[in-house]
Write a structure and sequence with these properties.
Layout lengths: L3 E6 L9 H10 L12 H9 L10 E6 L2 E6 L2 E8 L13 H17 L4 H10 L13 E2 L2 E2 L2 E7 L4 E7 L12
Antiparallel strand pairs: 1-8, 2-3, 3-4, 5-6, 7-8
Helix pairs in contact: 1-2, 3-4
Length: 178
Amino acid sequence: MGRRQRRRIGGCSAEPDRASRRATECAAQPRDNRAAACASIVHALWAYEALDLREYEPFRLVMVQRAAVAVADAAHPATKIIPLTLPVMFTSSSLGDAFVEQPRRELFERLVLVADDWLHGRTRFHRHRWTSRPEISVNMAREDAATVSRTTIDVTSSTIDLAYESLPGQLATAPAAA
């Protein structure tokens, strides 16, 4: 079994009289830690927008606060805040995000969004591997790569729990290329 780490992220609200001080503290953080130190999702977005994105490899940053999620992508600097009313899915692949997005999204909708118990559905989703297409699966495997970790973020009205699970080394199940 892989190593699992859980981290509880406390309340994310800033009192109005403390907001400007927290924004200053947020901006004063080391460059790579600014967004994590912010008191609100808006402050985290400001910190993100202050980054020189040319200094980074491609990435997607997901920021969560209570009933909202903001998604920032280094390739597309525009950010947006989305209401968090249902479970959401983010995916990536070295094969190309667009290549795996549709089949994984359809699986997510089937296993999570329409399930009677979405938490059970999420677990099934994270462990899913198509026998005929392991290279595009959520629990991906191919000759040169495999899924190495899972991260889940659970948001309630009072807490945000982040769970990171390191997966044991996996042997690729895809046939070797000729």
